[in-house]
UniProtKB/TrEMBL annotation, chain A:
<dbReference type="InterPro" id="IPR044760">
    <property type="entry name" value="TRAPPC2L"/>
</dbReference>
<dbReference type="InterPro" id="IPR011012">
    <property type="entry name" value="Longin-like_dom_sf"/>
</dbReference>
<dbReference type="GO" id="GO:0048471">
    <property type="term" value="C:perinuclear region of cytoplasm"/>
</dbReference>
<comment type="similarity">
    <text>Belongs to the TRAPP small subunits family. Sedlin subfamily.</text>
</comment>
<keyword id="KW-0813">Transport</keyword>
<dbReference type="GO" id="GO:0006888">
    <property type="term" value="P:endoplasmic reticulum to Golgi vesicle-mediated transport"/>
</dbReference>
<dbReference type="InterPro" id="IPR006722">
    <property type="entry name" value="Sedlin"/>
</dbReference>
<keyword id="KW-0931">ER-Golgi transport</keyword>
<protein>
    <recommendedName>
        <fullName>Trafficking protein particle complex subunit 2-like protein</fullName>
    </recommendedName>
</protein>
UniProtKB/TrEMBL annotation, chain B:
<dbReference type="GO" id="GO:0001889">
    <property type="term" value="P:liver development"/>
</dbReference>
<dbReference type="InterPro" id="IPR021773">
    <property type="entry name" value="TPC11"/>
</dbReference>
<dbReference type="GO" id="GO:0009306">
    <property type="term" value="P:protein secretion"/>
</dbReference>
<feature type="domain" description="Trafficking protein particle complex subunit 11 C-terminal">
    <location>
        <begin position="1039"/>
        <end position="1096"/>
    </location>
</feature>
<dbReference type="InterPro" id="IPR025876">
    <property type="entry name" value="TRAPPC11_C"/>
</dbReference>
<dbReference type="GO" id="GO:1905897">
    <property type="term" value="P:regulation of response to endoplasmic reticulum stress"/>
</dbReference>
<keyword id="KW-0931">ER-Golgi transport</keyword>
<comment type="similarity">
    <text>Belongs to the TRAPPC11 family.</text>
</comment>
<comment type="function">
    <text>Involved in endoplasmic reticulum to Golgi apparatus trafficking at a very early stage.</text>
</comment>
Length: 189, 1134
């Protein structure tokens, strides 16, 4: 299994390793955890890596930087879902005291269940929010997988931010980010 | 709203309580009975036992009890639960029947009364034939009973009455009608409650006993029914724990039933009922999580049980009701003290209920779209003989039918059609809105502002569907700004589109315009062709034409709207609108800026207005005007106007001034000359107005408050500032929109003065002198400067003490004093020709030392021409200088003896010297004019003191000294400190002219200790001696006391002198007398020689030592060598 993995997941060259370390400082992740999550991701990628129905990145000021949903005809509904989930995100952030803000876990967990969807949240230290909406019927999905999806998203987002031609605050139009998101989403049928 | 078939029956929703019937009470005519009844039922508090009482007449007919089935073998049940069952046990069949009867133990006609009572008991027993209802008798008595066991008659008669009525002793009660009625009643009802519980217990046992007769194939329905009944009886028995258990069993049994299309509704109805009961009990037991889990399970199980596809709306209606009633239960529990949280509150259930209600509406419109020719079927299949159903959840046209296929296809079709026709009349929107507003109220409570907004949008859309456009717009308007400030453009666009449709249908011109403007603008996420369509409509409206219908409007409404618009068109007037676009994101962006944050009054004020359209087509406007804050006169200068012809409003001609081409920034510049009154004032842009349309059509003013900008622009500016693009090269004419920043105000400042102000002076200033500062003012203007005024002096705003200690004057010949001010305002200088120069001298007297800032402010008026306009400007120039004030000199004073020895005290009548040193500290030469000693009365000068420093010039660091010989007159007591007087020095700077005033500086002399001494000695001797030449020395010894003094004197031998005279003597001096001692000294050596020492000791004053007295005597003398010839000396000198 592990040998197969190595061929699937490109290991870091020394150069990219140092680059990653820079990045991690930014995102507040520990290096060890990233390593393990890469491996974990690899393991599940065969089964159910395509599972989100909507993925959104929300700016610190709560406007959307990126939002993509799979059934395109119902896009507006997902926009509303993501927007309303910010209520819970804000509440969760503010519930953590100022003093504890540094140690706050980025992953917020299940924000709220609706009849049809489950909405998960994640907030970076710079208060950028990630929201993933999953179909309620998708019971195979566990908390760990959601976490690793968020971490992957966060890493890709840091890459976007590191791009000198990207203006912080602009909507994200990155092919790399796009493909990461697409890989996580249910294929439109 | 009247109850619909989906509402839960009230007997299900109420809290079941034991039913006890009271008979034999005449509550209408008998006051005592009335009081008893009131005590039972009025003001029942929570701490009383849960019983529902009812007064029934003695001959009341109770529901007939059917003969009990002995075998279920051939019995096929027709349904799960009869509709009347719950009501029957709540309100019709009592658990206990109480007969009230007025009878005292000592009644005169006891026998008769007893048999009458027995008859009454018999009657009610008969009417309750077959039921297990207990009967109890209450005797209403007038007398207070004796304690039990004491009244023998009572116990005997009670036993006989029980016997007659066939009652157990426990069922006979006595109610004395006395003061403590309520107390007795409470005891009574507790006893009733026990009886009732026994009754319900037996009922439960009875129902349970049926179970053994049932089989699983034919009696499935009965399993549910019995379980439900047991649970319900348990609830009546107030055994809620067991009741919950039975309901749970019933619930799982319901889902074990075979389901098919014909019984789906019945199963769901019952499942809903049981679920309701379970959730209700869970909340009651304060286990809300169990309630929620049960409800989730219920929904998951039932979600897919749609039933007949033709009646799909029934399923959604039922689902909606499930959520709604759970929300109600949840809300009720919260009111009773449960705490809900943001992510788990009743709002979510109401929201979901609303969602299903919306689904129901959609299905209804889809399924009930019958053609007009289809009429309600006759006979009405929904009619039943009794007017109600026998079993819950069954179809009226096939009641009791339990097989899989419907018995009559014809009836079935008719029934479904009837249901569909009925569904058409349901006010769906009303239901949805009610549910949504319930949810809104909840989310507001649990801090979910965005969820609230979302639901309000849904409400608005629902109102739109219900054609209540006014309410729809009100709601949508309310939430729009939330989405705008949060910058969720996709959502804003969708809301705006709905709002636009509403305003179109109402022909609301102003709203229509403002929504269109935002929809064609940059915040809208509409596609280009949609924007284009909206813009064309907008132009039509501006030209006072009827716009095309919005898509998704139904035909009839669109037609009505067209008519409304036509009416609007013919309406004269009210065709001018002002839209405040500041808080929107309109399709024209505006930024206004003054080119500089300040303008000199002789420069024209320049103002640029940048406009940019974001719409798909070019847009033409007819007027642009800028309103400025303080001067109405300026406004007319800031207007661009060009009435456009209505037909070419859309034609693109980018050369034209009044046409905004999409994506291009247009600049309009204005220039005006500020008024001279406005110098020092701020000019602000209060508004920018852009007029679209024309006077003959409709005209719309887009009004930006301040210098433009809208709801989105501040954020865009922030992003642009961060952007790497902003540092790119930009071609000359092309203006990068994002780089333009708003500058909404400017200052009008005075003209730059062309005048030079120069100061010449010699710092530092000396304390107290009249310090001269020469101001030279030279005009460099090209025309005459008029009305030149100089304000000079201490700059205001410094330490307040400086104002007191600084005096300014123009007159340098006199010393100035306190009456002179610190600042001389507006010294008139007159007019200055070009190039002319004026000098002015200013004299400053600084009483204290330290630094001061002096201000020289020259103001003048000047006529000039700006942009061909004559204006008179006032200019001014300020010059400041910091001047340090220092003391001119230090005065040091010391007292010395005549031998120049330092004295720390002086002696009465003995002369001493006062020495003064004047040490110059001034960097400039000082001219000391004179000095003067003003002695205190306690001091006297030995001779006429004359100034020794008169007309002396002191350079920096030089010192001038003076010496005065003084003596003190006697003082009263032995020693005291006395004042010496003052030392006055008159001086001025050497550099200044002769007529400059002289400064007099006063130095106060120190106090000195004066002491009286008993004896005074002084010597009289030549100024020098010569070797081997005798010289006479005379010592005078004075007695200064009133006593005779014994004095011992001796002269010590010396190597340098030989002498003659008394070597040692003892003498007596009379008071005030003086003794003279003469010695001849014969010097032996040349040079300074110590005189032979004279020792004096006073026998009476051992304190006065020789040491002290010796101070008065010379200690040495210069002895010249033996003289040569005078000629020799002169030769030697040569």
């Amino acid at each position: 299994m592990l040998t197969r993995l190595k061929t699937q997941v490109p290991l870091f060259s020394m150069n990219s390793y140092t680059k990653l370390r820079e990045k991690l400082k930014l995102s507040g992740l520990s290096l060890a955890s990233t390593h393990s999550h890469v491996i974990r991701l690899g393991r599940h990628s065969r089964h159910n890596s395509k599972m989100a129905v909507c993925i959104a990145v929300i700016a610190k000021e709560n406007y959307p930087l990126f939002i993509r949903s799979v059934p395109v005809q119902n896009e507006l509904k997902f926009h509303y879902t993501v927007h309303t989930s910010l209520d819970v995100v804000e509440e969760k952030i503010s519930a953590v005291g100022k003093a504890m803000a540094d140690q706050r876990e980025l992953y917020l967990g299940l924000l709220y269940p609706t009849e049809d969807y489950k909405v998960y949240g994640y907030v970076t230290n710079s208060k950028v929010k990630f929201v993933i909406v999953v179909d309620s019927s998708n019971t195979s999905l566990r908390d760990n997988e959601i976490r690793s999806m968020f971490r992957k998203l966060h890493n890709s987002f840091t890459d976007v931010m590191c791009n000198p031609f990207y203006n912080p605050g602009d909507t994200i139009q990155s092919k790399a980010f796009d493909s990461i998101v697409s890989a996580m989403m249910v294929q439109a049928s | 709203m009247s109850p619909t078939q989906w509402d839960l029956p009230p007997e299900l929703c109420c809290r079941p309580m034991a039913f006890v019937a009271l008979t034999g009470l005449d509550v209408t005519y008998n006051a005592i009975h009335r009081a008893i009844w009131d005590a039972f039922c009025a003001n029942r508090r929570a701490d009383r036992v849960p019983i529902s009482f009812k007064v029934l007449p003695g001959d009341h007919e109770y529901p007939k009890c059917r003969t009990k089935r002995t075998s279920y073998e051939w019995y096929i049940p027709k349904g799960i639960l009869k509709t009347g069952w719950m009501n029957k046990h709540l309100n019709l069949v009592p658990a206990l029947l109480v007969l009230f009867y007025e009878l005292d133990w000592d009644d005169a006609v006891w026998k008769e009364k007893q048999s009458e009572c027995a008859t009454k008991v018999e009657i009610v027993r008969t009417s309750l034939q077959g039921r297990n209802t207990k009967v109890a008798v209450v005797l209403i008595q007038k007398k207070t009973p004796l304690p039990p066991g004491e009244d023998l008659v009572a116990s005997e008669r009670a036993a006989s009455l029980c016997n007659a009525c066939d009652l157990s002793g426990k069922s006979l009660f006595v109610l004395p009608h006395t003061d403590h009625l309520v107390g007795y009643i409470i005891r009574l009802e507790n006893a009733f409650y026990e009886h009732a519980q026994t009754y319900y217990y037996t009922e439960i046992r009875r129902v349970k006993s049926h179970k053994e007769f049932l089989n699983k194939t034919t009696h499935q329905l009965l399993f549910v029914r019995h379980q439900f009944k047991i649970a319900f009886f348990s609830e009546l028995k107030q055994d809620t724990q067991n009741s919950l258990k039975y309901y749970r069993t019933a619930y799982s049994l319901v889902h074990e039933l075979r389901t098919h299309e014909t019984n789906m509704l019945e199963i769901k109805t019952m499942a809903g009922f049981i679920n309701y009961k379970i959730c209700r009990l869970c909340f009651q037991h304060n286990t809300p999580l169990d309630a929620i889990a049960q409800f989730r399970k219920h929904i998951d199980l039932c979600k897919k049980k749609i039933g007949s596809a033709e009646l799909a709306f029934e399923h959604t209606a039922w689902m909606s009701k499930q959520f709604q009633s759970f929300g109600d239960l949840f809300d009720e529990a919260i009111k009773l003290g449960l705490t809900a949280i943001q992510t788990q509150n009743p709002g979510f259930y109401y929201q979901q209920a609303a969602y299903y209600a919306q689904e129901r509406k959609q299905q209804a419109t889809h399924l009930c779209a019958h053609e007009a020719s289809v009429s309600y079927p006759t006979p009405d299949h929904l009619e039943t003989p009794s007017g109600a159903l026998d079993f819950y959840g069954q179809r009226a046209w096939r009641q009791g039918h339990q097989s899989i296929d419907p018995p009559h296809m014809e009836k079935e079709k008719g029934g479904i059609l009837a249901l569909q026709m009925k569904e058409k009349d349901v006010p769906h929107s009303e239901l949805i809105i009610a549910l949504l507003s319930n949810a809104v109220a909840q989310f507001k409570k649990y801090k979910c502002p965005r969820m609230k907004s979302h639901l309000m949008v849904q409400m608005g859309e629902e109102y739109n569907h219900a054609k209540d456009y006014t309410k729809a717009l009100k709601l949508l308007d309310y939430v729009m700004c939330d989405y705008r400030t949060e910058r969720w453009w996709s959502l804003l666009t969708s809301i705006l589109s709905t709002a636009l449709r509403c305003s179109y249908l109402m022909a609301h011109v102003k709203d229509y315009i403002s929504y269109s403007m935002e929809l064609v603008g940059r915040a809208s996420t509409l596609r280009e062709e949609q924007k284009s369509r909206i813009e064309k409509n907008l132009i039509k409206v501006l030209m006072n034409e009827v716009p095309e219908a919005e898509p998704d409007c139904d035909q009839a409404s669109a037609k009505a709207a067209q008519a409304l618009w036509s009416d609007r068109m013919s309406l004269a007037g009210s065709n001018e609108f002002t839209i405040e676009v500041q808080d929107y994101v309109p399709f024209v962006q505006c930024k206004a800026k003054f080119l500089s944050p300040s303008f000199h009054v002789d420069d024209p004020v320049q103002l640029h207005v940048y406009l940019r359209a974001d719409c798909p087509h070019p847009v033409r406007f007819s007027k642009l005007c800028v309103s400025l804050s303080n001067q109405v006169q300026y406004n007319q200068l800031c207007v661009v106007e060009e009435p456009c012809k209505s037909q070419d409003i859309l034609e693109a001609s980018s050369q034209e001034n009044m046409c905004l081409v999409p994506g291009k920034t247009r600049i309009y510049s204005f220039k005006f000359v500020a008024k001279t009154e406005d110098v020092g004032k701020k000019i602000e842009i209060t508004a920018v107005d852009l007029m679209l349309g024309s006077d003959n059509g409709r005209c719309v003013f887009l009004n930006w408050r301040g210098g433009g900008g809208d709801a989105a622009s501040s954020h865009e500016a922030l992003l642009a500032a961060r952007s790497f693009k902003s540092r790119g090269r930009v071609p000359e004419q092309h203006v990068e929109w994002d780089t333009v920043s708003i500058q909404a105000s400017t200052m009008i400042i005075s003209r730059i003065p062309k005048i030079s102000v120069q100061l010449s002076h010699e710092p530092p200033a000396l304390n107290n002198e009249m310090y001269r500062i020469t101001v030279s003012i030279q005009s460099n203007e090209e025309t005459v400067t008029k009305d030149v005024k100089l304000t000079a002096g201490l700059k205001p705003g410094q330490d307040a003490n400086l104002t007191q200690s600084t005096h300014v004057t123009l007159n340098g010949l006199e010393m100035c004093d306190e009456s002179h001010p610190a600042l001389l305002p507006d010294i008139a200088i007159g007019d200055l020709q070009p190039g002319e120069k004026v000098e002015k001298c200013l004299y400053v007297r600084c009483v204290t030392t330290g630094a001061r800032i002096f201000l020289f402010h020259v103001a003048y008026a000047l006529s000039t021409k700006v942009e061909g306009k004559d204006i008179t400007c006032r200019c001014h120039k300020d010059e400041t200088v910091t001047i340090e004030t220092v003391v001119p000199f230090e005065v040091a004073v010391k007292f010395v003896s005549t031998k120049f020895e330092h004295l720390d005290r002086v002696y009465v009548d003995i002369p001493f010297l006062l020495m003064t040193d004047i040490l110059s500290a001034s960097p400039w030469p000082l001219h000391l004019v004179t000095s003067q000693l003003q002695l205190a009365p306690t001091m006297a000068a030995m001779d006429q003191p004359q100034s020794q420093v008169e007309q002396v010039v002191l350079q920096t660091g030089e010192c001038a000294s003076e010496c005065f010989s003084l003596q003190c007159p006697p003082v009263l007591n032995g020693t005291s400190s006395v004042a010496s007087g003052q030392y006055l020095i008159s001086w001025k700077r050497k550099s200044w002219c002769a007529d400059a005033p002289v400064v007099t500086t006063v130095a106060t002399l120190p106090h000195v200790m004066v002491e009286t001494i008993p004896l005074y000695v002084h010597a009289e001797l030549p100024s020098f001696g010569r070797v081997r030449e005798s010289m006479p020395v005379r010592y005078h010894i004075q007695n200064r006391t009133g006593l005779v003094q014994d004095v011992e004197m001796s002269v010590e031998p010396s190597d340098a002198f030989m002498f003659s005279g008394l070597k040692q003597v003892r003498l007596r001096i009379l008071p005030g007398a003086e003794q003279e001692m003469l010695y001849n000294f014969y010097p032996l050596m040349a040079g300074y020689q110590n005189l032979p020492q004279l020792n004096i000791s006073l026998l009476r004053f051992p304190a006065v030592s020789g040491q002290l007295l010796r101070r008065f005597l010379p200690s040495r003398i210069f002895v010249k060598p033996q003289g040569r010839q005078a000629e020799d000396a002169s030769i030697a000198a040569a």
